[in-house]
User: What shape does this take?
Amino acid sequence: MIDRYTLPEMGSIWGDAHKYDLWREIETLVLEAHAAAGTVPASSVGPVRAAPPPTPQAVAALEAVTGHDVIAFLSAWADNTSPREAAAYVHFGMTSSDLLDTALALQLAGATDLLIAKSTALVGALREHALAHKDTLRAGRTHGIHAEPDVWGHRVADFAFAMARCRDRLLRARTAVAVGKLSGPVGTYSNIDPAIETRVMAELGIRPADVATQVVFRDGIAEWVSVLALTATACEAIALEVRHGQRTEVAELAEPFGQGQKGSSAMPHKKNPVIAERICGLARIVRAQVTPVLEGMPLWHERDISHSSTERVALPDAAITTDYLLAQTTRLVTGLVVDTARMRANLDRTRGLIYTSAVLLELVAGGMSREDAYALVQGAAMDCWDHGTQFRDALREHAARQGRPLDEARLDEACRPERYVARLGPVFERLEQLT
Assistant: This one.
């Protein structure tokens, strides 16, 4: 992922320097386990543990010759070991994927920890915003058209619970990817004792695969990237709501707009929803990684590298982009400007049409058949749409034409917006408990 969308902490997890630190730690722990078991000389451990990791540049120079990243790393690291002969026992009994898959598990676990923390922060921001607007009346919309009165906090509460579910999925996905292996070529432990794997994985804080070939099966990683796609898409849903709400014709919501910020090089009046648009665009990048990673599950026999070549791009990009999206969505929510007066004005904009559902039910409750009540209400509504009349006036005219008396007191209650949200209390009680 390009630097523009890479936050430092997440970026460092996927950097070569950190990767080589992980490789060195895994190899050293394996060496120490072998030494404790008497498999290799104990005298080799100290010099290897003391040797600094090779620079990414040194590894790259050797890889240009060897065409193999692990061999290049081991050779460059051996060059830093004094005496150099101590490095002979590094990678003893291992195959490259033992190192690669175990280090990748640590990277994925570390990246997921950052995502869990950021998603939890976003849940909190959404919860507080929703509770602050639990009485803010607005027009609920379906198909982009006014439906029934709602409150803005209800809409945001839906986002809060959705993001909490994504956070909980991340917790489960962390368990799925925090899996390493140290079982040698094709996973048969031919040159390495299973006890070495058990000891090293415990020291690393991950678990050994129940079974592995030369690689760990990729279903856990596919699950992880799918969860990131869900999380990114939940961020997009929030951003899309803001984009709609900031349209000039709606003008209910607005992104934070900083001092000195510019909206357009040509039109000085512009305040565009650029944060929300960026979120919607970048969510596509995360979703785009799902299929390539899923296709890394079927491999030729015990191993090929069709999965790893894809993962070198897909996994960092998915993690870095989701990390950025969570941060940007939190910024969007915490800085969101809500025009409550405009929300109420928009609710009244259709001259009472938003109340037709309750009016229909009141007429039925008063003894009219549903078919007749629907025809009466719809006829009045169409006049309201076509001629700009007030819905209640059109309804009275249509009812009088048919000789049907109206109970004005009951219609007053049906046309009171607070009536529609009176039963939302338990939703906000549950929201208060959300963490």
In short: The domain at 96-346 is CATH 1.20.200.10 (Fumarase C; Chain A, domain 2). Residues 229 and 288 are 8 Å apart (CA to CA). The longest strand covers residues 145-151. The radius of gyration is 30 Å.
